Amino acid sequence: MFHVAAIQMRSEMASVRENRVKAVKYVREAAENGARLIGLPELWVSGYHLQPEMFRAIAETAQGETVQLFQRLAQELHVVLVVPFPEREVDGADENIYVSVAVIDTDGRLCGVYRKSLLWGKEQRAFAAGGKHYPVFETALGNIGVLICYDIEFPEPARLLALQGAELVISPSVWSLQAEKRWDIQLPARALDNTYYVLGVNTVADGACGKSKLVDPRGEVLNEASPGEEEILYGVVDVDEIRKAREDVPYLDEYPHELTPGGSEKMREYIQGA
Q1: Using CA atoms, how far apart are residues 128 and 105, in angstroms rounded to an integer?
Q2: What is the pTM of this model?
Q3: Looking at residue 93, what is its pLDDT?
Q4: Is 2-273 a CATH 1.10.1200.120 domain?
Q5: Whole-angstrom distance, CA of residue 183 vs CA of residue 180
Q6: Would I find Hydrolase among this entry's keywords (predicted)?
Q7: What residues are paired with 86 via a beta bridge?
Q8: What gap in Å lies between CA 271 and CA 274, rounded to an integer?
């Protein structure tokens, strides 16, 4: 059992230093209040509503200042941090920008980086899609999966994380007011489908619907933030509840493989080979 926190914050567009100062303040507050795993919203460091050239100017590598700052903070506070950032990758003459998330363990170690695989609308003009690879990160607190915003609207990535042993899936997002109903449906559906916890970390203002939420393995919303205010959402993840939910609702044990030739292996090949 461990305590989690979702930092529901508003970002100042293109104000990297100001956003970092605010995020660090919130992370420290969450840790002081007992959170052991703390997540930030999608593209919090840059803001979401920027032109492609602005994302390109702000983007960093996974060894850049933003990730290193939070590695030091994770080690100092002894917490797991889930830190989105616009990531730059240079391969020879080619340069790609991704919507990425760094997962940092309690000792400051970078467990890995996940790149958003499914891009929504105008994101396709600014970012490259990450490959359809959905890793589970082993941390001191448990097995963590990440699905960024639009990623969690599709059942297959969420199921693949379950098949790989994810206990908590975190969804850093900039989820819009227009799509608020989908936010309220998709997160509980993914939690229930796969009988694990889901922590949705949304932003507020600038057209976002807020309502960060923690959902348990039965699809019940345990706690939900306001639709329009900056705040820290707190909750508890109890791994024993996953076992109990899977005994009551054995979706994973009774997965109907005959409906998909090759079952879960075919799904793995589809997602990882796309």
Answers
A1: 27
A2: 0.94
A3: 75
A4: no
A5: 5
A6: yes
A7: 99
A8: 5
